[in-house]
Amino acid sequence: MPISLQTTPSQCIAIGGCSRSGKTTLANLLISYNISQQIRLFPLDEYVFPEKQIPLIRDYVDWEHPLSTNFPKLHHDLSQFLVNPGALAIIEGLFPFWQPEIRDLITDAIYLHISRDEFLKRKENDLRWGIVPQWYKEHIFESHLKFGLPPANLKHTFIDANDFQIISSIPTLLFPNLFA
User: What mean pLDDT is predicted for residues 4-22?
Assistant: First the structure.
């Protein structure tokens, strides 16, 4: 019987959405359900520039702008990882769809939609960064709408993160046990 040298191609899933929409939770859930591949999580929070290099808005560091993220380093790290046959990279964060060079590496995209009201409610209970002024909370949501939405030409799964209803299907070939 001949030996098959066929390998599984590498894949890159991007999970985007507004702050507090459940991106990290979903990424960790997908990782926990997939034990058959070499998986690495690429949280965009780990690719932010030092504070002094990030633009300001009203004297606040503007973490909600793509210029806060070191996309060249992310692209380098992703490219290095994806050369491994069968590797599965999961990018999660506010702006995974923003830079064209990163979009070119994405094989599957998931977008978590959250309403402004639900975001504000969840953000009210989020004290990781201390008390955030109301204008900055609004800025977070508006920046997400401006920079974080997947482009129309990127095929993506849309999940309503207000109540976690799947609007279109997640690739079940990657995670058959999750959706069985």
Answer: 80
